[in-house]
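User: Let's play a game. I give you a shape written as tokens, and you guess the letters that built it. Ready? Here's round one.
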């Protein structure tokens, strides 16, 4: 079993200037920091003895056979992006509720990506995690909201 702990963050100013359509034309800078509140993701390979292939536990419980059936958009996108073929059980616990304005969805995505790398025995670095999470959120999920992108802020830490 793999357990990741990813901090939530606070942006002091500059939110939105780190979004590609803005910073490509105007440049941008964000000042943000992490806080002592975390998103926890546990992930393990699920033995084939269950009726379901994947179990995802957050504020809901999803037991599904196919990744395409997963309702949670970040989980579905990350599992598709990672080309997951084995059954997985994923649990989310957070120190803060969703939509708190403290980057909870980004922390969730980073934590899940990190857990999948670790589950496969692969080491990764902060820059790669940030790049992967940005790609998943912006390109695969199509997130259009404003929040700090770690790849464009030197003060962001995992």
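Assistant: Ready! My guess for every position:
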């Amino acid at each position: 079993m793999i357990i990741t702990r990813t901090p939530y963050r606070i942006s002091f100013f500059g939110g939105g200037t780190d979004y590609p359509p803005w910073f490509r034309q105007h440049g941008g800078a964000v000042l943000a920091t992490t806080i002592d509140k975390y998103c926890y993701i546990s992930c393990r390979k699920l033995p084939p003895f269950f009726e379901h292939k994947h179990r995802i536990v957050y504020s809901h419980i999803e037991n599904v056979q196919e990744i395409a059936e997963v309702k949670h958009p970040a989980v579905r996108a990350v599992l598709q992006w990672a080309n997951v073929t084995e059954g997985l059980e994923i649990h989310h616990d957070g120190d803060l509720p969703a939509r708190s304005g403290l980057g909870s969805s980004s922390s969730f995505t980073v934590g899940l990506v990190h857990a999948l790398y670790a589950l496969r025995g692969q080491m990764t670095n902060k820059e790669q995690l940030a790049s992967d999470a940005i790609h998943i959120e912006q390109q695969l999920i199509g997130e259009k909201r404003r929040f700090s992108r770690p790849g464009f802020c030197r003060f962001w830490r995992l």
